[in-house]
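thread: overnight batch results

M.L. [08:02]
morning all. the overnight job finished for the chain we discussed friday. pasting input first so we're all looking at the same thing
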Amino acid sequence: MRWSATTLAVLIMGTAGAGYLYYQHLNSNIQHGQRESGDSKATKTPPNAAGQTPLNILLIGSDSRASDANVALGGGRNHRDNPPLGDVQMLIHLSADRESAAVVSIPRDTRVDIPKCTDPDTGEEFAADNDIINESLAHGGAGCTLATWQNLTGVYIDHWMTIDFAGVVRMADAIGGVEVCVNQNVDDRPKPGREGGSGLYMTKGPHKVKGEQALQWLRTRHAWGSDLLRARAQHMYMNSMMRELRGQNVFTDTGRLMDLADAATKSLKVSEEITTVKKLYDLGMQLKSVPTNRITMTTMPSVQDPLDRNHVVPAGADAEKMWAMLRDDVPFDKNSTTKPSGKKTEEKVSADPAAPDAEIGVLVQNATRSESLGVVNGRANTVSQALVQQGFTRAGADTSGSYAEERTVVRYPSAELEGDAQRVAKSLGIPLTSVKRSADVSGVTVVVGGDWREGTAYPKQSKPRAGDLPENSDALNGDTDSGKCMDVYEPYRW
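M.L. [08:03]
and the structure it wrote out:
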C-alpha cells in the first residue's frame, strides 16, 4: 500500500508538473504589445442593471512580410522590410449579457482621420493624418489602429489581436478545415492590367478549406469583384468556422482544445491586458456562450470617396446608426428570447454644486467634420452665442479649427468642475451621460459632434431597435448564411 501510494503521488506530481510546464510553454508563445498608442477619448459603456459591460475586441489581419513563411505565402519579397498594413480589420462586440455578438468590418481602403500616434517599440512619433485605415498599423502598431477605430466610432475597445499570413494558415490547419462555397468555378490569378491575385482555384460548390487555401479564400478580392465583397466572404468563413468548432465539441474536448491553444498562441499577437493563456481561454468561453443565430456579421455602410474613386468613406447617418448600436449595446439581431427591461440609463447628478452661470468658463469646439458629410461651419460660434444668451457670459468658441467626433460630449478636467459641466449640459439639452471627465481639456468644453449639425438645442436621440441595421450593412446571420455561396466575378470564372 505504501509503495502504491508513493507511486500514485509521483504520477500526480509528474502530471501536474507536465501541465504546469505546458501552460508556461503556451504563455511563452504569446507576443503582446501596448493596447493604445494614439490620441483617443472613447470611454467604456456604463454597466447595465446587472453590472455587466460589453466586450469589444479589434481583430487585425496584417500583410507583414517580415518572415520567410509570410513571404512564401504572400509574395512581395522586396517588401519584407516595409511596415505592415492592416488589410483586414474587424470589431468583435460581445453584448453585456453575453447573449449576442456582432462583428463589423471596415474596408481597408476607407479614408479616415488617423490620430497622432507613437510607436511603443521605437518611440517614433507620427503626426495626425487623413489616410486610408489600413495605413494606421504602420503609424504606431495595433494600438494606433485601435485609437483610429475609437475616434471613428466612439466605441471603447478593450483589446486588440493581430494575425499574419502564417498565423492564418496555422490556425486553419489546427481547426481541420472550414466549409466555404462558390457558385461558379473560380481562378483568382493576375489578369492583363490587373496585378495580384490570391491564387484561389476551385470548382463550383462547397469545399472544406484549410492551410494555404483558407488564406487564399480570406485574401481573395478580385474574384469577388470588390473589397466589400471580400469582407462578405470573410464573414461567411468566420460563421462557418464557429459552426465547425461547435460541431467538433472543441470547448469540451481537452485534446482538441490544447491543439488549438498551441496554434493560437503561436499565431496571435495580443494587447497587453490578455497576455496569459487563462485570459485568452476566458475570452473564448465568453464567445462560446453566444448561440450562432445571435451572431451577426456586418460591414460598415460606406460611399465612394469624393476625393478618390478607389477609396470609400463612412456613409454618414447609416454608419453613425451602426456605431450608436454598438455604443448603446443594441443587438444586431432580432432573435432575443428576453424582453428589454425598458429601463433608461441612470443619469448621476454630481454632488459638486455648480457655480453661477456667469462665472462658468465654457469653450465650444466644432467637431461636426465627417468624411461623407463634411463640416458644418460656424457651429462652435452658434452654440457659444446661445450659451451667452442664456447667461453663460464667459462662453466662447474655439477658433483653432474643426474636429471630428461622432457624438456630442461635454468634458471637464477635474472633480470640482463636474457640477459646472453638468449645468452647461443641462442648459443645452445634452444628457448627463454625455458629460465626461478628461485630462485633454483645461476647463468645461462643449464638443459639438456630428449628431448635432443644426440648431441651438441638442436634438433628442432616438435609440435604435434590436436588429434595425442599415440596409447597406450586408448583414449575415450565423445560422441563416449556412449553405450560401459566393458569386465569382465573370473574368475570374473558368
